[in-house]
Amino acid sequence: MTENTLGSSAADQPTQAIDGLDTRTKAQQVPGGDGAPSHSAAAPQAAAPTQEATQASAPARETAGRKFMRVEDERWGYDPAEVDDFLDRVDAVLATTARDLQSAPGVGSRQVRERVFDRVQGGYDPAPVDARLDELEDELADREREAFISEHGPERWEEHLELMGQTLLGRLNRPHGERFRRPSQRKQLGYSVSDVDVLCDRITEHFRSDEALDPTLVRKAVFRQAQGQRCYEEQQVDAFMDRVVELILALR
């Protein structure tokens, strides 16, 4: 989930062809090998910690007013400084009026959806942070739609949705096993072809019916790992699923 400039927001431009996208996979690898932050296992003995010190090191501690729990010190979580800084930027955007949203410096719904945080030991628990990001993405998408319609009119918005839908359906209508690229190396890992195709079939059924599609179906999708020709390239699948969520939110 790399950050883009506000100029590439969904409210500003039609969705690009997925083949041309170059985004990082959302399944960021957890540090643990070379270069991982060190954690000393042999700390010198000291007197019993005070109540204040104990509270400061508890997993449930809070930082800088953020209401996110931290994981235990030996586990990996999101870097609190990165999370707090990013959410401060989102708050600054949401403090603007809907009319000024497109010209406001900061982030849009796509940047929220694609954001990846570094991992540190004892960091924020990822689950509640991810849930909060989903809420912010929904709110920003709603405001971006309002701002676009206010400036360009509802007809331009409908044209934008139609173009986006045609781009996505073009890939969804491809045969099973041919929807995304295969890895260039024979032993490279990726997403199971069968798992991805099952989700694509469900998305296609929803788009062809009048039933609204819950973005959670796509956001929380988990694909098994496979190797070589039995898998799709992760980055391309992630980029496509991001565009699907973008369209789901735009249609609401």
UniProtKB/TrEMBL annotation:
Compositional bias segments (type: Polar residues): 1-16
InterPro entries associated with the record: CHP03543, DivIVA_domain
Residue ranges with Low complexity bias: 36-60
UniProt lineage: Bacteria, Bacillati, Actinomycetota, Actinomycetes, Micrococcales
Stretches the record annotates as Disordered: 1-71
Species, as recorded: Kocuria carniphila
UniProt name for this protein: DivIVA domain-containing protein
